[in-house]
Amino acid sequence: MKDINSLAIVSLAGVDKNPETGNFTAYYQVINPTSLSTRTGASAKAVVYNFQFKDYSHGRFNEQTGMSMPRKFFMADLQSYIISERYARQGILDLINFIELSPEQRSNVILFITDSPMYTIMNSFTPLDRIPGRFIRSLTDQYKPNFSMSLYPIRFKDIAREIHLHTPIVIPIIHYSGENPSSNSDRVEKIDANKDGMSFSGGAVLIHARMVGNLDEQSKNLFFILNKKYRQRTETVKINGDFVDVEAQNIQVQRKWNTPGSHLLIDLYADLRLMNNQQKSKMTLQNLHQIEKEFNQTLEKELKSYEQMGTNRGWDLLGIQDNGGNEMTWRQTKVTIHVHSKMTTIGNTSTPYLLE
Q1: What is the pTM of this model?
Q2: What is the CATH number of domain 232-345?
Q3: Are 56 and 15 in contact (CB under 8 A)?
Q4: Which of 112, 141, 332, 354 stands the most exposed, by the fewest C-beta atoms within 10 Å?
């Protein structure tokens, strides 16, 4: 049992690695309990303070913290871990081993990669949630219900379990929209929340714990869907010259080999929910079937393009080698994808409002 004011509670951690020297720069965001107090006259305004250290080994940072933190270093409340893109491209096996083998670390912490300067990311306040670590963690919570097991598969323990596979690991990229860090807490008083702020920006592709490239947001979504980890997607189709937005829910993917190791069949099933219908004609059963048909064809085309992109880059995005395919000839594997959808939810009326 410890008094909260005697602990340096770390909410967010970040690390960068210099490819020339091999030295690490670690960042720790420590919560300031007095600023979270509801009592009048709180002693300090900043909710978190950011500490920065440099050394040549991960295990040496604990000792360094005692030289500048007047409280006991405490990592049990850590929300998220962020690493720089240049560190990810060098390979992060050393970090994974450090987290997994250290008794003081938690392997259920989620991992992100940033394509923005680490200093900028770690020294910026966030709107709506005053603690940046919790803000970033909450971004992932928006997606968790649609993942299998309701877990975003980017925890250190998930990554460690899959680093030996040929199927890539895709980790969300955190991007900072401004040029300078929002290091002043007055930033959260500004109404423009998108300016000088953080958001997801696609996904980093890691093979055997080393970043080899990145996917845009739509391709990242397809990766998780086809590997049976995610169950939702939004598509826009054109019906009778007008746009119709539909949301695919409860997506189920079934795989089977037509010819073992050389011809893979993938069937994708989805329930459709009508999100936006700009058609000027009445919604009929025939019209619903037309939307389903257009959705199937549109998604099949995107999936084929996605599969070809992975093959061209040498990324086994479908996990062919880990699911019955030949490791030597997986690029020559014929893949046939069929999408089957059914409209299950429409709006309150089937007849649009029109002006004479």
Answers
A1: 0.90
A2: 3.30.300.210
A3: no
A4: 354
